[in-house]
Write a structure and sequence with these properties.
The protein is mostly beta strands and 190 residues long. The protein has 1 helix and 17 strands. The strands form 5 sheets. It has a 6-stranded antiparallel sheet with strand order 7-8-9-16-11-14, with no helix packed on it. A 4-stranded mixed sheet has the order 1-3-5-6, with no helix packed on it.
Length: 190
């Protein structure tokens, strides 16, 4: 729960509430402003915006059910996905490619893994990482990159005290998250 301001608004993220009372306002990825409203729930994420009467907030689950009935991806897939090692955001998605921004927390590592149906290109945009591709290990710094061919074992680790960020470009005929074969994972995932 967030602390309330003098007008009884609970605000999370980049929020500017003017002449607004009794609202819950959550900005996940951009500025959210309100003007002259009261008793609303406003939740903004990178892929959807919800505006609801605060008294009806318990009915949000019916909206989620409608999204599921319409086979909408927003009810299950979000632009930023959190993992034990950090998070990733999908920046672009096409028929044979996907671009992600990935952040690996200090001291964390992706699993030792391989993909049967996709290749990956990693470019470091912040921090430094230790990369294993096949039997080769290398340190990558800002503006350096590496190519991971299909069916090649690989891992990315952050041994530094700062977050490691990369841009990952995936290419292949299938880009689903279930095309991950894990061989070693410190978080116990299979």
């Amino acid at each position: 729960n967030s602390a309330q301001d003098a007008e009884g608004n609970a605000c999370v993220g980049d929020v500017l509430a003017q002449d607004s009372r009794g609202c819950y306002i959550h900005a996940g990825s951009r500025l959210v402003t309100t003007l002259g409203v009261k008793d609303l729930v406003v939740v903004e994420t990178g892929d959807a915006v919800l505006v609801a009467d605060r008294a009806r907030s318990q009915e949000i689950k019916t909206l989620v059910a409608r999204l599921a009935a319409q086979d909408r991806h927003e009810q299950e897939m979000h632009l930023r996905v959190y993992r034990p090692w950090g998070w990733y955001e999908t920046l672009a998605l096409g028929e044979r490619f996907q671009v992600k921004r990935i952040q690996i927390n200090p001291g964390a590592a992706l699993s030792l893994q391989r993909h049967q149906r996709r290749a990956e290109h990693w470019v470091v945009i912040a921090g430094e990482g230790l990369v294993r591709v096949g039997d080769e290990e290398m340190h990558l710094h800002v503006d350096q990159s590496v190519y991971i061919p299909q069916k090649t074992m690989h891992r990315l680790s952050n041994a530094s005290a700062q977050p490691l960020e990369i841009v990952e470009v995936q290419t292949g005929d299938y880009l689903g998250e279930d095309d991950i074969e894990r061989f070693d994972d410190r978080y116990g995932r299979e």
